[in-house]
Amino acid sequence: MEPTLISDCLIHVFTFLPEGDLISASTVCKDWYDAANTPWLWRRLCLQRWTFCNLHVLGTEHMNNSWKMYFLRRCHLEAKMGKGRTGGYTCKSLRGHTGSVVGLVYLQGNLAQNPDLQNSSATVCSASSDGTVRAWSIQNGELLWCTPVQDPLSSIITDEQRDVVVTADSTGLIKTWRGSTGQEVASFPAGSPHCTLLQYDVNNDWFLTVGTGGGSVCTLADSTLSKKSSVKVCDTFRVNILKVSPNKKWIVAGTKDNDDLSPKLIYTESLTTPSEDEDPLCRAVPVAGCSAAVFVPTQPARLAVVHQTVPSDNKALTVFDVSIKKSKYKSEIQVQQVESFPLSLNTWSSHVLLEAKDSNCLVLSCDRELWVYSLKGALLANFKEHTMSISSICLDSFRVVTASQDLSLNVLMWKNDRDAGLTLESRYHLLGGSHTMSRGFTHVACDYTSIVASAEGTNGKDVLKAYFFTS
């Protein structure tokens, strides 16, 4: 039999082997070694597991064996992230703020679709009541830049693609900063404290919508922060719910501070390109007392809302599909209920957190508990891993991280259950240090290779804890 035929037969047989058996087969003899290291076999395994892989992260000197090396390194990294054992990660304390951290966001993250397996260049920005924004290198634990001191900051967001950081301070002054240097780009006086920020692109045009403490939604455009529109949505109450739909056609704006008010759905086009003779197209969501809201990421405009039930004071979760009906003379917002089911939450707690994963998975937290629901209301999982309240949640395609006042982070991983489908599995805790120095975690953010959380200092000076996993 020809050597080529032997090799082709072996490669075909090896397509039925998982990675562990494939590695074992490569130790039998030279022919098996050559066949088992065929790049096509490892490319197939990589794309079956991750859909998209970027071999350039390995460097040109490894290109001959790159698919196998990529697979083994990424598996090794995910095993470390899934177990959280000592030695599988490094923890750095990022110190410098002299006040409380009010927000924490990745300016440059390590994406799950395209992780850098050699060198992570992740950058995190934190805003503080000390009036500064600070940018940190996660891998090195170093301060990259710090803005000049201004009034105490109240919120922060970033636009990674355009290298922009956006902040609001206690007077309502909105500022944009260049992400690479911390240089101020533009400012806009919203004239109201407690601003909520939302950034999005429409047809490659950059917009920033600001929810104010006076109940208005103000929309600004491009790097100059020029004002496009303003609309009142919850008179005298601050707008602290502000989300945009995946198709960018809808914004939901509301308040958590009043049990009688309904959140509003606003047609984005009427904010970004307003008509002089028409008010922005807006409609109330048919619920009252909104505690949390989120758009389902895989649907164009599917909105999930946690709200009060009438006449009782219990809470429910209701899902709506949002669309627009246009006729010759007018346009109407259509809000169609998809599902609604009761929740067993502490009705006295206003700190309800809601996130969505794929098209059929909702993650909800209140006080110390975390629930995973299907869109039809089936309880897929329930966790009570913390001894004190959950203060923040970070969710991505790989895991969920909860931060708590008990000064711990709980890491949960997504898994596919044969009966229940997609669900969560609690894996491990990351500890934030001593309660003599800190009161608990207040914010958390994560990318593919790192987790960063802010710990509330007993001396009033908050510290960032960065946990970095390497392959």
What does this structure look like?
The chain has 471 residues and is mostly beta strands. It has helices spanning 3-14, 19-25, 30-36, 39-50, 66-83, 269-272; strands at 89-94, 101-108, 123-128, 133-137, 142-146, 153-159, 164-169, 173-178, 184-189, 196-202, 205-211, 216-221, 226-232, 241-244, 250-254, 264-267, 282-284, 288-295, 302-308, 315-326, 331-343, 352-357, 361-366, 369-373, 379-383, 390-395, 399-404, 408-417, 421-431, 438-446, 450-457, 463-469. Strands 1-32-31-30 form a four-stranded antiparallel beta sheet. The protein has a four-stranded antiparallel beta sheet with strand order 2-3-4-5, with no helix packed on it. Strands 6-7-8-9 form a four-stranded antiparallel beta sheet, with no helix packed on it. It is globular, with a radius of gyration of 25 Å. The two termini are 42 Å apart.
